[in-house]
Amino acid sequence: MDPARLYTNQIYTVSHTMGLRFIQRKIKDHGRLTMRKLSLYIATSLDGYIARQNESLDWLLNQRADDNGYTAFYDTIDTILLGRRTYQWILRNVHSEFPYQGKNCYVFSRTLKGQTANVQFVNQDIVTLTASLKKKPGKGIWIVGGGEVLSPLLRENLVDDLIIQIAPVIIGQGIRLFNPGPYEMALDLVKVTQYNQFVELQYQRK
Ligand SMILES: NC(=O)c1ccc[n+]([C@@H]2O[C@H](COP(=O)([O-])OP(=O)(O)OC[C@H]3O[C@@H](n4cnc5c(N)ncnc54)[C@H](OP(=O)(O)O)[C@@H]3O)[C@@H](O)[C@H]2O)c1
Hints:
206 residues; alpha/beta; eight-stranded mixed β-sheet; globular; binds NADP nicotinamide-adenine-dinucleotide phosphate
């Protein structure tokens, strides 16, 4: 093949591939734009724990007095996902009215069934249910935690935003935010905010 023809063919191949990548990217972006966002919004110790092993949050509650951007975030969501242990922690420790009244709350559990005035228990596959909720119209979805129900969502790449507030404390052991497992996630750091002694890191899935 003469060099000019070869060159033209190469240009065609490169631009065709780039065009395909562009279209693939656009389709992915469109999918993301038309789907509801699933956000993890959570507080951890500096060493990555969300609670002590006995589920105590004393290390967090003894220093957290301000809103720290919570109200602004809460207004962006209408659906809440919780693990059964997190839900029961709330029932044991929040003595005023249920804190997420008026939102659609789903509690993942293989042991609790049915519903209460505030939550619906679900023993359905976490990934399937969450993927279908993301396709429904509405505001954002908040995965409150804990670590156990978060893991499968990370593994299946369903979490769009991670907003992590780090408390200025190391507790050495406890319940992990990120359970070890066969998953990886590439992220863009979108924003860093300081709220008094807390630092908030906002990441977006690439
Ligand atoms: N620092 C923070 O901001 C923060 C935020 C959230 C939670 N927390 C703390 O985290 C602790 C709980 O976290 P955790 O990781 O131990 O538990 P978790 O994720 O809250 O709940 C685990 C439970 O969820 C249910 N579950 C898990 N996978 C399931 C599946 N595939 N299908 C159906 N149900 C499923 C099971 O309930 P059953 O046993 O009923 O089957 C399991 O025992 C609590 O102490 C809470 O206070 C802290």
